[in-house]
Amino acid sequence: MSSNSKSSLQIENVVKKFDVGEQGIWERLRREKRRHIRAVDDVTLEVAKGETLVVLGESGCGKTTLGRLIVGLEKLDGGRISYEGSEVKYVRDRGAVRGRLQMVFQDPSSSLNPYLSVSTCVAEPISKMGLRKQEVAAKVSDALKLVGMEFLFMARRTSDLSGGQKQRAAIARALISDPSVIVLDEPTSSIDVSIQAQILNLLVELQSLRDLTYVLITHDPNVAKFMADKIAVMYLGKIVEYGLPGDVLKNPKHPYTQALLASAPKLDGSSPEAIGGEPPSLINLPKGCRFEPRCPHAMPKCREREPSLLSRDNELVACYLYEEN
Amino acid sequence: MAGILDVENLSVDYATPSSVVHALRNVSLTVNEGEVLSLVGESGSGKSTFALAVSRLLPPNATLLKGGRVLFRGEDLMRLKKPQIRQVRGTGIFMIFQNVFLSLNPLMKIKRQVTEAINVRSKRAAEKLDKRGEESEVASILKSVRIGDAEDVMERYPHQLSGGQNQRIMLAMALAEKPSLLIADEPTTALDVTTQAQVLLLLKEIREKSKMSIIYVTHDLAVAASISDRIAVLYGGMVQEVGPARQILSDPKHPYTIGLIKSIPSKAKNEGPLEAIKGAFSWDDVGEVCAFAPRCPLARDACSKGIPALNQLDKTQIRCINYGERYEQ
Q1: Which among A167, A253, A286, A293 is most buried, taking Cβ atoms within 10 Å?
Q2: Is residue A94 part of a domain?
Q3: Facing residues of A38 across strands?
């Protein structure tokens, strides 16, 4: 992922740790070290302006944490995230860039306050900018128009909206501060199938209209295929494969990507293929490759040392199968 | 054709503070011996209500309308009293839900919960089982749902296991009771894709081995495709299309089914927008008309003349006037 002039978002060696377990007075007196997990472990990625990077993975792989780090909702424990050259800081720190980076969350029913009207919710990101009432109202109606909601909705409470309308309102809220990067965390997974396509079409339309850069977090290979310019596959905090959707989805290299795609049920009625086991806990990670306990191609080497992300035919893959000797 | 389950004209209303919602309207479906029938639909389609009604687990604000019958092996479940229903549950009809953490007792070790299920069966079948026999059966059942270290898992509580493992424990309990009908309400929706594939394969295997009939409730057509013999597509509390799975997936007839299949992303964004179904489901559209008409690309005036009747076309039934302009009485 060499630096290029068009790049909008740069994620370099990013690490996020979370403390686990309890630390009572006894542990403190004995000065026991806190145990922690690395939810995001040394992730380096780059997204070009106006493009969509899809982060594909299962629950617990750290994809949501990565999304929250990008918009500054979590504090970094290592590495650097920069957007158009300037560093992204934790939201509570001084001098944090606000508004240019926005996030749309998975479940709009819990990300929108049910007691507020649609217009109050949508106006939230610009409410502290010292704008006059009419200016705010104009911006709200523009944002709602962009997502295909009539102004009739403005006065309604968000709890009265349907799932699809709520997600539209959430997208409008993300758009109102005129951001250039939007992190979309599973934007359609809590919405009915018949509405999903509408929302995906809307996101693509908005992207070309506003030259938006997206980081889309999903577990669904179909959504990934439609939205992605680049795909990063994540497993237990690490990127295991990165490349163009045509390569990663059609011709997956990493055994985990292969397993993930083979597990997805298909409309032709063919039986999904299952790999054994479940992801190991982040607390007791295997010493070598994280996928080794479930991998059908595991070699003795995989148990000893973690493979690093190496370039291979237009892609980056972290697997010894593709290491040149 | 009498199946293991024959549902005739099942209608359910929910009373809400402001109005009455017609959650199910005259649903008639048959499940044959050893068959997997999937109910596919979005929220509000009535798919879960159907599953709950068949197992007589509807919430208190629901009313079953007169005229509906649910014949399980020829016996009308709607007429049974509570103690008799309990005799059917478990060994007759077994139900698993989306949220396994709510179905398993958090204060009981896995061993005791599975043993309970075994006991129910052995009591009803008048088998004699001693303590040791029970324990070895728990272990062998857990192994048959691919729980590797069964002896270890037996001694644990549900919260110490993952969602996928817990869902497999539920399946193990189903296996222990040997029901003739398993109703699974979105059992893999909360699971990861790789775990979902494991559970789906397991269900297929169970069904082949034990000839259990399964009603599989899901919102995901692709999941239904991978497991079912027949598919019923529900919308607005009514069956819109029902028939052999292969036929419905490869040659859907109802505009809603066609729309659902088309809206699953299968291309990249630079190849043009997805063919989405317009609008959204609303209870206001459900009445004496076609509930899908407001969103239908083929809608015309005749769609609001009444509720379209089911038209038989080959082995499929379609509730759409484009296949015969007939209406429900």
Answers
A1: A167
A2: yes
A3: A17
Query: Does residue A201 belong to the interface with chain B, where contact is any CB pair within 8 Å?
Result: yes
Average pLDDT over residues B167-178: 90
Between chains, do B198 and A274 touch, taking CB under 8 Å as contact? yes
* Residue B59, token pair as written in the block: 């919430």
Contact call for A192 and B42, based on CB within 8 A: yes
Which domain covers residue A57, as residue numbers? Answer: 7-100+179-322
Is residue A114 a part of any domain in this protein?
no
Summarize pLDDT for A150-174 with one digit per residue, the tens. 877 888 898 888 888 899 999 999 9
Q: Looking at the complex, report in whole angstroms how far the Cα of residue B42 sits from the nearest Cα belonging to chain A.
A: 6
Mean pLDDT, chain B, rounded, equals 91
Q: What is the H or E stretch that residue A41 is in?
A: strand A35-48
Element (H, E) at A14: strand A7-20
- Whole-number Cα distances in Å, A47 to A8, A127, A242, A258, B92: 6, 29, 12, 24, 56
Q: Does the beta-carbon distance from A227 to B261 stay under 8 Å? A: no
Query: What is the ipTM metric for this complex?
Result: 0.86
Residue A278 above 80 pLDDT? no
pLDDT band at A97 (very low <50, low <70, confident <90, very high): low
Contact: A267, B264; criterion CB under 8 Å: yes
Select the residue from A192, A206, A218, A283 to test the B interface by mutation, using most B Cβ atoms within 10 A: A192
CB contact under 8 A, B197 and A263: yes
Confidence of residue A96 (pLDDT cuts 50, 70, 90): low
Domain count, chain A: 1
